Amino acid sequence: MQKISFIIPHKDDPLLGRLLSSLNKQTRKDFEVIIVDASDDNPGLKTTSKWIKSLNPKVIFAKCGRGTARNIGAKLSKTDILVFVDADVVLPENFAEDLLEVFTKNSGLVAVGFPIYPTKINKISRIFYSFLRFLDGFSYRYGKPRIPTTCAAYRRSIFQTRFFLDLIGEDVLFSADIMKYGEALFAEHIRVFEEPRRWDEGSKILKNFWHYIPAYIANLMIILGLHNLMMPTQEIKKT
């Protein structure tokens, strides 16, 4: 029986194959892979064809935002634990094994976040990712976890009534919104690696910094307890 669903929102990312390769090397194989592809001309299909025998990924083509893509994947999943992971991420070989152990030992957990490291290290990426790891770790200590969906794991049960929004900073808002359902853990021993494409050159810093400003504003509102002002009613009617 499959234990984990890896849900990958994808759009024209040449690094998707690298992520699938890291999934194929997992020490545990009891998981499913769901790719929600918004790419032009469906290039993701060519990438996934290599992994049909080993991973048997489900590929759903949908022109939608990243939040909606995650919601589609959650609806189609058949496991209790959902891992949302970006296409430019590399997972360690024991990721699935260690994650299952974390959830098994902590029945009250509804969410798990991970320390993010760059796949390529230079002065800029070292400083930036060190700061993000500090920010993420500290957010758990003051009871308002910041869980970026670069890679994040959740209990499937919370998606009976909650879902992601299509806006920048949606992962931070989602983190705060689900805390009423249980606990969150920062799994410091499970390292996740991301391609530092926004921060591998000094010239890209100012160009891409705008991407994080809405997320930091949302994080500040969470700290002040004002984040509910940004959250619409999300109760899903049961049929």
List the helices and strands and how they pair.
Elements (H helix, E strand, L loop, with lengths): L3 E7 L5 H9 L6 E7 L6 H6 L8 E4 L4 H11 L4 E5 L3 E2 L4 H11 L3 E5 L2 E3 L4 H19 L9 E5 L14 H8 L5 E4 L5 E3 L8 H7 L3 H11 L16
Parallel strand pairs: 1-2, 1-4, 2-3, 6-9, 7-10
Antiparallel strand pairs: 4-8, 5-10, 6-8
CATH topology: Spore Coat Polysaccharide Biosynthesis Protein SpsA, Chain A
Distance between the termini: 27 Å
Overall mean confidence score, pLDDT: 84
- Low-confidence runs (pLDDT<50, min 5 residues)? 234-239
Query: SS-based structural class?
Result: alpha/beta
Helical segment tally? 8
Quick one: CATH class?
Alpha Beta
Biggest beta-sheet profile = 7 strands, mixed
Number of strands: 10
Protein described:
This protein is an alpha/beta fold and 239 residues long. It has a single domain (4-230), classed as Spore Coat Polysaccharide Biosynthesis Protein SpsA, Chain A (Alpha-Beta Complex). It has helices at 16-24, 44-49, 66-76, 95-105, 123-141, 170-177, 203-209, 213-223, and strands at residues 4-10, 31-37, 58-61, 81-85, 89-90, 109-113, 116-118, 151-155, 183-186, 192-194. The strands form two sheets. Strands 3-2-1-4-8-6-9 form a seven-stranded mixed β-sheet. A three-stranded mixed β-sheet has the order 5-10-7. Strand 2 (31-37), helix 2 (44-49) and strand 3 form a beta-alpha-beta unit. Helix 6 runs parallel beside helix 8. The longest helix is centred in the middle third of the chain and has 19 residues, at 123-141. Residues 234-239 have low confidence and may be disordered.
